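Spermidine/putrescine transport system permease protein (Crystallibacter crystallopoietes), 265 aa
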Amino acid sequence: MRRRIGPWLVPVFGGLAFLFLLVPIAYVFAFSFNDAGRTNLTWRGFTLDNWRNPCGAPAVCEALANSLQISSVVTIIATILGTAIAIGLVRYRFKFNATANMLIFLPLATPEVVLGASLLAQFLNIGVDLGVGTIIIAHSMFCISFVVVAVKARVASLDPKLEEAAADLYASPIQAFWRVTFPLLLPGIVAAALLAFAMSFDDFIITNFNSGNVDTFPKFIYVAATRGIPAQANVIGSAMFIIALLIVIGGQILSNRRAKLLAAR
């Protein structure tokens, strides 16, 4: 009996797990073709009009533009600062190194509600107007931690002898960094940047506390959900999923090609 069930157990549970993960995405994609009219809660017929005019719903593209602008700025800030912190924590030893390593995880371990409320209190206490600027500051705070964690693993895996060899060949520390260290870190930095962008783009809780009257795409979805998310929002969500999927596939293809080239040498 065990022999009969055993070979099927993993594929069945694996298939159910994938089905569980993909059902919400399939729902969003299917209802992006819904001829919704005033509400998108029930299926009313197939149409391509939503894909032809994804900005057809009021304020949806404005919210998307705000999210893209904020996520792009946050990604740049978090990637630069997070990479520098990761290199500093791994390559240099200083008095509070262990404490700094522990503190960098605090934003990841703290509930978003607590972070959002505490940041809002600080902004109000110092008289800062809520808006795009406060969202960028809030997102940068927790995205830096994600970048540090991702890049630290890459820095720790590098062999310091490579930089020592560059120094033996009369490369200055800056030349050794840009010509040896940075290219080797680049895959980890790119992965960390994509993670920071996704975390910032998707965030709702901290944004809701610190955004004032500015609408981001997650805020727009939350407000619209009470009366049925417009089909145009489903179009944008589906497009984001397809773009992310293409990036992952492209990265995997490039990684495989690079592995084959290295194996052929």
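The mean pLDDT is 88. The first helix runs from residue 2 to 31. ok done for today
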